[in-house]
Amino acid sequence: MPQRPSPLTQIPADIVCAEDYERWAERNMSSAVFAHLSEGSVADTTLRANRRAFERHAIYNRILVAGDHGSTELMLCGQRFRHPFLLAPVAHQGLFHADAELASAQAANALEAGLVLSTLSSTRLEEVAAQTQAPRWFQLYFQASKNATLSLVRRAEAAGYGAIVVTLDVPVHGVRRSSQRLGFTLPAHLNAVNLKDIDDGPTRAISRDDSTVFQGYMADAPTWEDLAWLLKSTTLPVLVKGVTHPDDALRLQSLGVAGIIVSTHGGRALDGGMASLDALPAIRQAVGPDLTLLLDSGVRSGTDVFKAIALGANAVMIGRPYIYALATAGALGVAHLLRILRDELEITMAQAGCLHINDIGPHTLFSPSHLC
Amino acid sequence: MPQRPSPLTQIPADIVCAEDYERWAERNMSSAVFAHLSEGSVADTTLRANRRAFERHAIYNRILVAGDHGSTELMLCGQRFRHPFLLAPVAHQGLFHADAELASAQAANALEAGLVLSTLSSTRLEEVAAQTQAPRWFQLYFQASKNATLSLVRRAEAAGYGAIVVTLDVPVHGVRRSSQRLGFTLPAHLNAVNLKDIDDGPTRAISRDDSTVFQGYMADAPTWEDLAWLLKSTTLPVLVKGVTHPDDALRLQSLGVAGIIVSTHGGRALDGGMASLDALPAIRQAVGPDLTLLLDSGVRSGTDVFKAIALGANAVMIGRPYIYALATAGALGVAHLLRILRDELEITMAQAGCLHINDIGPHTLFSPSHLC
Amino acid sequence: MPQRPSPLTQIPADIVCAEDYERWAERNMSSAVFAHLSEGSVADTTLRANRRAFERHAIYNRILVAGDHGSTELMLCGQRFRHPFLLAPVAHQGLFHADAELASAQAANALEAGLVLSTLSSTRLEEVAAQTQAPRWFQLYFQASKNATLSLVRRAEAAGYGAIVVTLDVPVHGVRRSSQRLGFTLPAHLNAVNLKDIDDGPTRAISRDDSTVFQGYMADAPTWEDLAWLLKSTTLPVLVKGVTHPDDALRLQSLGVAGIIVSTHGGRALDGGMASLDALPAIRQAVGPDLTLLLDSGVRSGTDVFKAIALGANAVMIGRPYIYALATAGALGVAHLLRILRDELEITMAQAGCLHINDIGPHTLFSPSHLC
Amino acid sequence: MPQRPSPLTQIPADIVCAEDYERWAERNMSSAVFAHLSEGSVADTTLRANRRAFERHAIYNRILVAGDHGSTELMLCGQRFRHPFLLAPVAHQGLFHADAELASAQAANALEAGLVLSTLSSTRLEEVAAQTQAPRWFQLYFQASKNATLSLVRRAEAAGYGAIVVTLDVPVHGVRRSSQRLGFTLPAHLNAVNLKDIDDGPTRAISRDDSTVFQGYMADAPTWEDLAWLLKSTTLPVLVKGVTHPDDALRLQSLGVAGIIVSTHGGRALDGGMASLDALPAIRQAVGPDLTLLLDSGVRSGTDVFKAIALGANAVMIGRPYIYALATAGALGVAHLLRILRDELEITMAQAGCLHINDIGPHTLFSPSHLC
Lengths: 372, 372, 372, 372
Ligand SMILES: Cc1cc2nc3c(=O)[nH]c(=O)nc-3n(C[C@H](O)[C@H](O)[C@H](O)COP(=O)(O)O)c2cc1C
Ligand SMILES: Cc1cc2nc3c(=O)[nH]c(=O)nc-3n(C[C@H](O)[C@H](O)[C@H](O)COP(=O)(O)O)c2cc1C
Ligand SMILES: Cc1cc2nc3c(=O)[nH]c(=O)nc-3n(C[C@H](O)[C@H](O)[C@H](O)COP(=O)(O)O)c2cc1C
Ligand SMILES: Cc1cc2nc3c(=O)[nH]c(=O)nc-3n(C[C@H](O)[C@H](O)[C@H](O)COP(=O)(O)O)c2cc1C
Fold this sequence. Notes:
oxidoreductase (chains A, B, C, D), FMN-dep_DH (chains A, B, C, D), alpha/beta, about 40% helix
């Protein structure tokens, strides 16, 4: 294996946007790890759709709007955010940089961005919490037993996480062709530290003729009852991640979730062409103006953030881009990336005549049918 | 001629989907045989359309659907199928692997997939039937004389085929530019063994000024009367393959066919841009919910299968992909391919919240006009 | 200048369609001549549109249509044609092959295709007529003086041409960037022989401040009065070539033309994106079912011919493809090309269930909006 | 740094259109300067949209329109223009050619094209005015203080500029990734000479926690009151440049501006996908037939000019193309480019049956939905 370059300690002048970090990161990883990070699922249709969707909307520039009170501040689930950006939960960050989630947390602190820590983090959730001043939420995967799930929730509460984000779009593991071709496997030392001492009960036995999908994964997948139980089991606001159907959104709303994250898991769960951004308007329309909606999957610039907000999101989460930055230059890279996105968003808002996040709405977009 | 690699006896780790088999197969064949297998007709417009059509529909992911009773079982023409996949009739499989149709049958047995044997198989229909436990149907080309046609039907009945699939979309041979350019011809030893002892009557003489198409092929092409005769001549269910117009579907239904296969012959018959998948919804709408509809042409993944079923098919047939697998690794390859497709379908169903084939319907799709 | 290969005297097996002739022809010509032949005008938008337009329509295959009476015969302006193909008027064929228009005529004879001779032919119109048994029409460019125009018409009548095709879409010479870049000029020996002894009157003087377009070309361009005069001056049927607007078509119809050729001059006149095929339906709708309509520009296969007829044309003209064939293999090449197109059309008709040209109509097409 | 070729003193035969000048110019500049000139902003979405928009409209060719009175003359804000072309304001032309704005002016004189001089010209506005006989306007950027702004206006009035063009679409500097990556900076000797002796007051101090966009640029950006003040402060006609929203257009109209320039600043201001041409029809519809509307961004040929006028513009401005010509061959290049565009426009008009600018309108276009 050729020696990989070590992460940078200074940002080169030719990194000026999220895509530049992707190019740099590719050089800093083995091709199997890069495949694991960059791939979607099956034929990557949703992965591509997530990018193209943003091209279907144009932004009106507006003139002669001025003032010194502009800001990107906003409230989400009762918590104040400086910008509408959160770092999405990305598992096993030790794969990408020795500092792993602690580097991401450091950058979030510096730029006052929200951070959502994955159940599958390489760093214990308590350790990350201790290092994070920025708003932090905990992403929860239901464990096979309620006890195991509850113990994660209790630890998150105790560590001071401000909300639980339950991810529900991967009842089965997606089909990941590229990393499978390159034989990607998680290195042994990168086990899921948060789950280390968790007793998840006996594994269900499936017979030779059974389907691993149906008699395996789906037999144990979480249900609406499980979610209702979770909502009752914690006083933290609970957001659900991985929703694209308005009916699911409505049912979640009536169940009392604090928010919904419209997401295709970055195109890594169900493949088939639905972009998160395309799913967003119908969901906003279904749940009305008040429920907190976040969007992720495919956000790569401040322009994209603007469009997501205009179409109904309160804020967005960023996935791969910050991991590319992490792999390239650790905490410094992630902070730089967040700075770029923030600048791009502010410039876009200024040009669109929006001095506050609340000024951004459907009326700021031009979405003719030919933009498809 | 350079020595071709022999078929594999083990599946390399980098074959993870149908398209991978296509790449491998290209190395295992002469370019003329590969052209013959992969090409469409005229300008390959329909060939391409068959793939693009699947991109016009996206699948909703649904959350919190769980249970241990999921399955892909279904009934077709009164017969039970473990999965909604059949191996499409592909002529002269001796071109691609020494074991020819027997390898395909072996794989169908192993994976419990349906098999449709071509009139033009390289192996006698009786021999294939004897080796096949999986549901098997016989694909019939009308012969010039009714006697010849009838003798094929009687043999299929005797050998235990469960249905007759009459292919009607090639009254004339399609325009096959690529294989013509490379001078593809069927090797002498690969004659159509099923037709060996069949007396098909004298060939029609056409005069110098006649058109080989109109006074040749079309003068002898089958008619609605011929089909009606066939339906009366056998007790087996008869399905018609090669339909894209709803009016034809309706007329077939009133004639009493057991099912219709919406197909463009993999883009090898009429060129001109109509994808099988695009033709499907109008045909389902015309014939109502009960008539058995299959689709083929362009299916390459479990996602595609899901979409075809959502748009009205009961099941699909797979053509070239299994032949690519056959050429690459014989029965082992075909079985592996079927396993991949089955896994992809089950995963897609799980992610879409469908635990049974019947749960898949138009409501599971998002098909906005911009997905075109 | 490198030695060009001489035209072939036998057709290589790898020429199986019109596009193959284009590739071969490119090798048989200087790049300047190839540029002159293949280019469109300005940014080649219309050139490209002419091809893409055919992809917006798909053809339904139909089943169980048979019979021995199929044929492609048709009547145009009272004259019988074996096939709905005419060789479009293409100037200066001496550029492409020593036998020039005589080779084209020989091929038209052999395949019974119609031939339209350009005013600017390299061979005298009388000489071509003497060698042509196939239906032949004369393409007329208005000359600056009525006398000159009339003398061409009289010669065409005397030589036995069956119709006059007046081309009206080039009042000014189009912008031809590629050939201009490569410095294409007509070789001195290829003057327009038909215009040799024609006295076209004094040239109009334009002042230094005048526009060569407006005070030059347009001051002398033909008018509706000129066309009315022409119609009265000959007993031959007069067709007008170069129409895309339905209002022009209607006015031509009421003036009494025998037919209209919907054409963009192969994308060589006005650039700007209108495909001939896109203009056709509105024109057929405007003029009703009876007026003879031809289409040219972009026809490359029998499938294209079928679509043009389905959208309202009675027949089509082929431009560049036969010139590519001429440059590649003289009369033999042109005959081969016509044979290919005829076969492709017959096969397409058979597959679409059309045994006669009259069976082809809008109902044979599937033209959903996503095919754009 | 490799030696760049010096500007040409003669036009090579292979420059025949605007795009050719772009290719030549790329060789005549450092890559950083070329990036600065050619780039858009953020992801260049609007840059690309500006070109693609023209492909969504096709032009009808019309036949038998003739006459010797054709012309491209028009009136704009009471001033006579020979052609509907103006050279757009482009800053710092000293970057591209030693003669800078004087070369552009010389070409404008020769071809009687309008010229709009940038506030940020490399040549003093008085010097340019003295060399320009062609219609000339002054492009104004609001300065931080009214005094500074007013002094520019007074100087423009005194120098004989015929109108003020206030550019309002860059309240903040756009995100320019390419030139940033290549480290482009303005050479020290190319300071903005017009602003040299201007006292623009103290710079606003912003605190460490402030946003440079919101508390910096936007705090000082011009307002509707500032524009009203400007309109009252000069007797020259005032046009506003950089409008895409019909509501802004309406408000400007009621404020009494002399005209509006529908522009995306060549894709260099707000990125996000809106083409100037796409914004034009709604603005023409909002302001009615009488208000002067210009369009720029993406115009590259006479065909484009025709389409812009057909969709509601009175005239167009050309940006980068003339700068490419300037860099390639100085005044000679710019004059040649203008000649090409003028010829292309006249030829297009002739082919479309329009002998005057007023004949060009929506009825000359065919804009079906498939042209997208
Ligand atoms: C390598 C990788 C690991 C991920 N791990 C998790 C995870 O543990 N939990 C989760 O909810 N989402 C996970 N996601 C999904 C992200 O939270 C997010 O939805 C997605 O990356 C957003 O799309 P983007 O990458 O296009 O911005 C992961 C994504 C990637 C790329
Ligand atoms: C090489 C080849 C041979 C075929 N032979 C037959 C045949 O004998 N009978 C038949 O009904 N269809 C035949 N087909 C069509 C297939 O049954 C099927 O319709 C088509 O391959 C499906 O499209 P796909 O290849 O894109 O999956 C053939 C297809 C190919 C590629
Ligand atoms: C090199 C060349 C010369 C042509 N000369 C003439 C001509 O003399 N008169 C005429 O009416 N059309 C002329 N045309 C236009 C053709 O008649 C016809 O409209 C066009 O070639 C059809 O488009 P296609 O080439 O895509 O088939 C010419 C076309 C080409 C390519
Ligand atoms: C290098 C460059 C500098 C420019 N400078 C100015 C300027 O100083 N003032 C202004 O109003 N517009 C400026 N523009 C915008 C142009 O006036 C015009 O809107 C744009 O170039 C038109 O698009 P086009 O380049 O596609 O033709 C500049 C554009 C470029 C490319």
